[in-house]
Amino acid sequence: MKNKEWLKKMRAKFNITQKQLSDESGVNKLTIENLEQGKRKGSEETWKLIEDYFEKREKGIIDISMDSEDLIQELQEDIEEFGEDHPCILVYKYKNGIFLFTNYDFITDEMPFNPDKELREGEYYIETTFKYALEVFEKQNKII
Fold first, then answer.
1. How much is the pTM?
2. Domains located in the chain, CATH noted
3. In the chain, what is the greatest distance between 2 CA atoms, to the nearest angstrom?
4. Distance CA 37, CA 35 (A)
5. Using one digit for the tens of pLDDT, what is the confidence trace for 60-119?
6. Backbone dihedral angles phi then psi of residue 26, each to the nearest 5 degrees
7. DSSP letter string over 115-140?
8. Which residues of 97-120 are buried (b: 16+ CB within 10 A; e: fewer)?
9. Strand 123-129 to strand 87-95: parallel, antiparallel, or no bridges (unpaired)?
10. How many whole angstroms separate alpha carbon 103 and alpha carbon 35?
């Protein structure tokens, strides 16, 4: 079983705050504080959530659903097929004052977008066009 020293070491390794860990792992911030201070031992489920989070972090699969280059290529193909003015949903997360755009989706009468079913916790969306979505992903790709 992991312990408070391991938790402190992992947070330091990835340079994240207790709040960030809480927001991104789904474990209550007070629980994380208590684990690090040794006030609580934590359940197996709590430690599993934390371990899974750090495992994903080590593999580089936190935050971005697809590599930006892949998203850009896929979006360019959709623009060629459907046109740059085709409406779409642009999915993003807002963390620590930063907008991170993670995906896009079509908007059609046959395939209406249902945010309750298609967004994960902490994700938001805006309605836009393929052209604007491509601009956003290309700009973001230069920054990240």
1. 0.52
2. 4-59 (1.10.260), 68-143 (no CATH)
3. 58
4. 5
5. 655 433 357 878 999 999 999 999 999 999 988 877 567 788 888 888 777 778 888 888
6. 90, 5
7. HHHHPPTTEEEEEEEHHHHHHHHHHH
8. eeebbbbbeeeeeeeebeeeeebe
9. antiparallel
10. 34
